[in-house]
């Protein structure tokens, strides 16, 4: 880096304000490029034009109950709402979580990364995926689980996702992993899939179908494209039986998770089960795996917890990220509105931890279901 540049900028008196800003930007750029913070800043907003990020944040927030929005509107406009959310949040997710955007059942002594991979292997094992089979990942993010499951089971996985920015990232990462010949991405809505019926040997969804405006509509599409006799397995985000809709505290937590995670309305576990049966599936087994997890799934986000290996997810790490984003936004390396995004993501973290501790919410309601012959 050219160290005289900030000095030169400081000296050009007439342009002092903007020059200071630029010089500072150079310094920040230099310091941050190593930590991935520059990727966080440059990816922020996804496919949204940088100058429209703030407007998009405002529109996004207005959909939510936390800001006076209403559920019917969120459901009617789910495509716009969810895509805005992922355009805004994806670079934060990648910065904090890596390539897999989900929680995990975790044993004592297991690192977060290990538990995330095992959680993915668990799905592949439950589905009994065989080498060469054609598998569908519904709501695949940037493809972390897809790559892991494809390598673990030597199968061909297609990632279905309605967010263009995530697919662009996913394709890059598939190429780097060398699996771009056998695995691909399709940009489409999981409520209307562009596949003929009976196309896949196995289908899974990880923390994604919660974005569907209605579970039945989504499961019915999955049922249609799955081959008869084959299975669908998922980790669903749900409110548990302990959730009391009359309890104001419970409702507040639910709204925080909805605004923080781009969800129209978090369903109860029983609602998902009903929708599966209604769609025609035979449910083989189902369980809230959060109940079996020796290490609570929300621990990485809990403010009383500290970890170096998942530092960016901890309360201290998030506090640093929040301030970093503030600086990046100030020097215009991150678009206007970036701080607001880190704001609603912080709300999500709080809602998730509170919901997890009270056991009114789970991100891992698991089911294995079969389409009859
Ligand atoms: C929390 S992320 C999980 C991503 C991935 N399963 C993982 O574990 O890394 C939810 C994903 O669902 C996708 N999604 C949400 N609504 C969708 C829809 N209607 N059609 C297709 N994908 C959708 C989002 O774009 C996002 O990639
Ligand atoms: C929802 O979509 C409709 C039709 O596309 C649009 O008129 C309305 O403004 C949208 N609502 C919000 C809150 O953006
Ligand atoms: C993986 O599958 C491919 C094609 O289905 C096959 O050629 C290859 O030998 C398999 N590799 C392993 C390790 O099973």
TrEMBL record:
EC numbers: 2.1.1.-
GO biological process, one term: methylation
Pfam families, alphabetized: Methyltransf_11, Sterol_MT_C
The SAM-dependent methyltransferase Erg6/SMT-type domain, residue ranges: 85-372
Metabolic or biological pathway, per its Swiss-Prot or TrEMBL entry: Steroid biosynthesis; sterol biosynthesis
One GO MF term: sterol 24-C-methyltransferase activity
Position of the signal peptide: 1-25
Any one GO cellular component localisation term in the record: endoplasmic reticulum
Origin superkingdom: Eukaryota
Keywords recorded for this protein, A-Z: Lipid biosynthesis, Lipid metabolism, Methyltransferase, S-adenosyl-L-methionine, Signal, Steroid biosynthesis, Steroid metabolism, Sterol biosynthesis, Sterol metabolism, Transferase
Family: Belongs to the class I-like SAM-binding methyltransferase superfamily. Erg6/SMT family.
PANTHER family (alphabetical): HYPOTHETICAL LOC100005854, ZGC:194242
Name of the protein: Methyltransferase
Organism in which the protein naturally occurs: Microthlaspi erraticum
